[in-house]
Amino acid sequence: MTQQTADIQHLKTLARRISLVENEAVGYEQLLEQLPAGSPTRVIGITGPPGAGKSTLVNTLITTLLAQQKTVAIIAVDPSSPFNFGALLGDRIRMSQHFNNMQVFIRSMANRGALGGLSPKIIEVSDVIKAAGFDYLFIETVGVGQSEVDIAGIADTTVVVLVPEAGDEIQTMKAGLMEVADIFVVNKADRDSADMFVKNLRLLSAERHTRDWQIPVLKTIATRNEGVEELIAAIDKHQQQINGQDRRSILMADKAWQLIQHRRMRNVNKQQLQQQIQQALQEGNFNLYRFINNWQ
Amino acid sequence: MTQQTADIQHLKTLARRISLVENEAVGYEQLLEQLPAGSPTRVIGITGPPGAGKSTLVNTLITTLLAQQKTVAIIAVDPSSPFNFGALLGDRIRMSQHFNNMQVFIRSMANRGALGGLSPKIIEVSDVIKAAGFDYLFIETVGVGQSEVDIAGIADTTVVVLVPEAGDEIQTMKAGLMEVADIFVVNKADRDSADMFVKNLRLLSAERHTRDWQIPVLKTIATRNEGVEELIAAIDKHQQQINGQDRRSILMADKAWQLIQHRRMRNVNKQQLQQQIQQALQEGNFNLYRFINNWQ
């Protein structure tokens, strides 16, 4: 068996395992329970508002890491929220130059979380991918609302990608992003307003200085491959910082909470609920809280 | 006992009941189970991006409804998300001219939903308020992300408030809001770009015409009390349309789902999870999925 055949076999096995977990097919729980305890994979969340150039940046990151003989996996999260847009599909296509590269594994996932959060499935799939031993796993989400907060619960390092611009709405969004950023990237840094924007962001992130980590604000021009090696260096530096148990257990507790919730709610079906409620409403004297207590 | 004393007594009882439910104090489940089946209260969600003038509009709605001898309750949802801002506090203060009015009940609630959704508490509290027999209950939320979608699951009529302006981010947000709007309000309609904005919005909402309801696009200038009576008329008209059982059971099923989830997860404590995980990590060979299956 050539190395390439072995690689293909490896990726096929991985794809099959992910499908098993996604579909909750027979044996998926055993598969998860048998995942090894440790993984060398750096898990990096890439988030930011639409139009910040996240996909182009991920693309450039992949190219650069491949040149360094690293292996890379990507989970691209398509929000199935009302905010889902055609632009995202465009993003997927732009990344396609890597689809057939053996060192790269790309999986697109819908954000099927019933409550707007990242799906518990993304937690499970990222753990399956980690067990495959890639050097890096990037999880890319569009930061419109809650998802950038959730990604911070899955990724070891969260990179928030912004573009230089002004406006109240953006500022609002940025404050949410501020909370989750381990690294800021100002992309499209050749724009006129870039320097002032970076300066302001540095002031803001300086306020969040901790004993262990000062959030860096990096400039990139992803389309020209500028600043990407510095970003990789910053990611690696952050990964070394977080090897302490404390942050890891907080992340794990978040994941555990979401997974427990998913499992406890698995047998609750909205359509079935609706049918039963419709019938109860017709019978009259309906009270939602009595219904819930008597339910199941 | 004068009418005013009786009113004060009534409001005090209501406030006490809400606190009981908010704190899950002894007897709160019985209280909820004894709520009457029907309520005359129209429940209206008011949502939209920050800066659209939602609070001023609610203020003007209250004034107008009071002049019509109606009683009004308001739940003002402060998102405890990272998007929470001082501006919101300003909104609360602006509404304060009604705080001592006997026909008006105002309650501020934090959005404590662990997953970014509206808290199940808001469902319960709105049901308690409905049982008190107000003519209108307004639930005001800031539409940044998911909350405007969730409000549509609680309110019978969702009013989406926008201001005339352009920009990609706003367009993105608008598409999410488009899904939930029963009525569009273009506030600050004296701005230059208002007519074009209203025209575009009418084209978009025309596409969502259903057999029973054509989403109206109304113009208001809340600060000058313009267009508010037309808005009330549109709300009342929509309320008459939705008296069918179908939509009601869908709304009820959504609420039931959230409440069931809240109850099933009530005994899961993230801090406790973290402590146990930290210990397990130290013992070595930790697997998240084995941990979850063995948990509790």
Automatic annotation (TrEMBL), chains A, B:
The keyword GTP-binding applies. InterPro entries: GTPase/Isobutyryl-CoA_mutase, GTPase_ArgK, P-loop_NTPase. CDD domains: MMAA-like (cd03114). It comes from the Bacteria. Keywords: Chaperone, Coiled coil, GTP-binding, Hydrolase, Nucleotide-binding. GO terms for molecular function: GTP binding; GTPase activity. Residues 228-283 form a coiled coil. Belongs to the SIMIBI class G3E GTPase family. ArgK/MeaB subfamily. PANTHER family: LAO_AO TRANSPORT SYSTEM ATPASE, LYSINE/ARGININE/ORNITHINE TRANSPORT SYSTEM KINASE. This is Methylmalonyl Co-A mutase-associated GTPase MeaB. It comes from Chitinophaga agrisoli.
